[in-house]
Write a structure and sequence with these properties.
Residues 155-324 form the DUF4872 domain. The chain is α+β, with helices and mostly antiparallel strands. It has two domains: 2-30 and 78-176, Cathepsin B, Chain A; 184-325, no CATH class. The protein has helices at residues 15-26, 33-39, 66-75, 87-99, 153-161, 188-200, 208-218, 222-225, 229-241, 251-262, 268-297, 301-325; strands spanning 2-3, 43-48, 57-61, 78-82, 104-108, 125-132, 136-140, 148-152, 172-176. The longest helix has 30 residues, at 268-297.
Length: 327
């Protein structure tokens, strides 16, 4: 058995920030989950509907691993990422750092993880690995999935090698905090502005505030899209509110990040953004509840209501990001 000592195995709301928290606390940098999310400019929006997926997906954050890349660049972290199609090399990329006393982040498809409560393919899941024995890997996942957990080495290999939407080729990564890294407090405003600017000027209509507006027009038709409304709409609602988002499609996490920032920086724009994202978190929870209600009842009226709320959210989030972009 090989175990990295002194691991703080706190499970958070969101998988990638949970894993980053484990890796950075081991390096002596202990930041809250909202702070990690915000410093990584994690907030976004995407309306995703492709031919190879059975039902539309609403995402509230940047694409998998982008948050880690953003955070490493912003905090001046020394980061090493490995990807390979070789099962043997993939294992060595993980075992090597752990043998040397350093936890490793892994991107994988959670469908294969034996401790997972819901068996759904999602290739953008991230965990921290801090040990292994002959049969099992020792991981840290979100609090919802159990925090410090174990899965068989065979299941871990399947999860890491899975191919499909959002998957990576056995991606693993480590981070270190160099002595000359900038103070994280100095990186708050650049992180907020970068997030706001990307949200306000998305390259395609499916992203940012334009994506929310698009969703407002398309969501009322979801009942006709659903093969099994009770299942499909319930899952869509769950993905918005409970499946690792921290509530309100990540808006609650960003609200809390802005609240922490407002305690450190005296700026009217921050207070405005914090207030508006508090409202947005509540409204996104309302959208999720209306989608779930439509699935339970088979009635399209709640989806019409949800579309109207999304129009309000487009305006509200655009106003919040305009204020924050001026910091």
């Amino acid at each position: 058995m090989t175990i990295v000592p002194d691991i703080d195995a706190r499970g958070g709301h969101h998988c990638e920030t949970t894993a980053l928290g484990v890796l950075l606390r081991h390096e002596g940098l202990d930041l809250s989950e909202p702070m990690l999310f915000g410093l990584g400019s994690g907030l976004s929006f995407v309306y995703w509907d492709s031919r190879n997926q059975p039902f539309p997906f609403l995402g509230g954050r940047v694409k998998p691993y982008a948050l880690t890349v953003n955070l490493a660049a912003r905090l001046g972290l020394t980061s090493r990422t490995e990807e390979t199609t070789s099962a043997g090399r993939a294992w060595r990329n993980v075992a090597g750092p752990i043998d040397a006393g350093r936890p490793v982040g892994l991107q994988l498809d959670c469908y294969h993880l034996e401790y997972f409560g819901t068996r759904t393919h999602f290739g953008g899941h991230v965990v921290a690995m801090y040990g292994y024995d002959e049969h099992e890997a020792y991981l840290v996942d979100t609090a919802q999935q159990g925090g410090a957990v174990r899965t068989s080495l065979a299941s871990l290999a399947l999860a890491r090698a899975e191919r499909g939407p959002m998957t990576a080729r056995n991606r693993s990564f480590t981070v270190a905090v160099p002595g000359d890294a900038p103070r994280w407090q100095e990186r708050l405003v650049p992180a907020i502005r970068a997030c706001a600017e990307a949200f306000l000027a998305p390259p395609i209509a499916n992203l940012g505030h334009r994506g929310i507006e698009k969703a407002a027009g398309l969501l009322p038709g979801w009942l006709a899209r659903a093969e099994r409304p009770g299942r499909d709409l319930a899952l869509a609602a769950d993905l918005m509110e409970r499946a690792g988002t921290g509530g309100g499609l990540f808006r609650a996490l960003y609200r809390d990040f802005l609240g922490e920032c407002a305690g450190l920086i005296d700026a009217a724009a921050l207070r405005t953004g914090h207030r508006l994202y508090g409202e947005a978190a509540v409204l996104w929870a309302e959208v999720a509840a209306l989608v779930a209600k439509a699935g339970e009842s088979g009635d399209a009226a709640p989806l019409q209501q949800a579309g109207a709320v999304l129009h309000d959210l487009t305006r509200l989030e655009r106003e919040a990001m305009r204020a924050l972009s001026g910091l």
